[in-house]
Write a structure and sequence with these properties.
There is one protein chain. This protein is an alpha/beta fold. It folds into two domains: 54 residues; 217 residues, Rossmann fold (3-Layer(aba) Sandwich). The protein is 38% helix and 18% strand. The protein has twelve helices and nine strands. The strands form two sheets. The protein has a seven-stranded mixed beta sheet with strand order 3-2-1-4-5-9-6, sandwiched between helices. Strands 7-8 form a two-stranded antiparallel sheet. Strand 7 and strand 8 form a beta hairpin. The termini are far apart.
Length: 291
């Protein structure tokens, strides 16, 4: 549940929160101004060496928990495209999702730009998980049509807006015809989702380590531009899909391939119930490479 204005004010009195907010605001400017290539890679490396330390002080996890917010019920929304598939994961972190997908997939190739994250992921990776260092902004080190499915969770919002189109084209290239890209990313109606939420009203573009957040419609446009068909948008995490009722909701509500039509309205930004029922808390999207 999003913090109230009073709760945010109280949180900002904590030194560790102020440190994180200050760091993210500066990081946003540095990342957005960085030039593509070596300069941007250096800034990204610098930011994401420091950021996890500061973030853990504000949002501590139970000892031994390095899942970074992974939710099995969210991954389950994409299981039809994971079962029996050869899957590429971008931004695998500590490998929690890769291990979960490995129970259903034929093979998982999990990539990340952080060697520290990959080292942690290798500790208990199952036999059908392969872990590699790769940066999609530089091009993926895989042949055309190598994968049935590409999965990425909370990665797109961290990409520079100039880099996202190229990454989506790379995803299309490595997908076989008919293959699927399964995306989980932040919805702008419920954002910002980075540390700038302590300062900014709901529905405002982020100003921290998230360089952009999306609407379903906007995300569908990105997929279209990359030659990927936005086949399906699922209803976001809510009581409906926890009860298995999102299908019934979709039959009675105005939900298009690009997502719920309620998104972006003042109503969706004011009402948590509307955002929850309409699926605009988070984007869960499946795009297909045409045959």
């Amino acid at each position: 549940m999003r913090a109230s204005e009073e709760q945010r004010r109280v949180q900002l009195e904590r030194p560790e929160v102020r440190d994180l907010v200050h760091f993210e605001l500066e990081a946003h400017v540095r990342l957005m101004k960085s030039k593509a290539g070596a300069e941007r890679r250096a800034v990204v490396t610098d930011v994401y060496t420091v950021w996890p330390v500061l973030a853990r002080r504000v949002f501590p996890s139970p000892e031994g928990d390095d899942s970074y917010g992974f939710q099995p019920e969210v991954l389950a929304r994409f299981q039809p495209w994971i079962t029996g598939a050869r899957v590429l994961e971008l931004g695998c972190g500590t490998g929690t999702a890769a291990r979960a997908m490995a129970k259903h997939a034929d093979h998982v190739v999990a990539t990340d730009v952080s060697n520290a994250m990959l080292d942690r992921a290798r500790r208990d990776a199952p036999a059908n998980v392969e872990l590699l260092s790769a940066d999609a902004t530089e091009g993926l080190p895989f042949a055309d049509a190598s994968f049935d499915t590409v999965y990425w969770n909370d990665v797109a919002e961290h990409l520079h807006p100039d880099d996202l189109p190229g990454v989506l084209r790379e995803i299309r290239r490595v997908l076989r015809p008919g293959g699927a890209v399964c995306t989980l990313t932040c919805h702008i109606d419920d954002g910002p989702h980075d540390a700038s939420f302590f300062l900014l009203p709901r529905g405002t573009p982020p100003m921290g380590v998230h360089l952009q957040e999306f609407s379903y419609r906007g995300w569908a446009e990105h997929l279209d531009a990359a030659g990927l068909e936005p086949m399906r948008s699922t209803v976001g995490p809510s009581i409906l899909n926890r009860l298995g009722l999102d299908g019934a909701y979709r039959r009675f509500a105005r939900v298009t391939r690009s997502g719920p039509l309620v998104e972006g309205s003042s109503m969706s930004r004011r009402s948590g119930l509307v955002r929850s029922l309409g699926g605009t808390r988070v984007i869960q999207s499946v795009g297909i490479r045409p045959r």
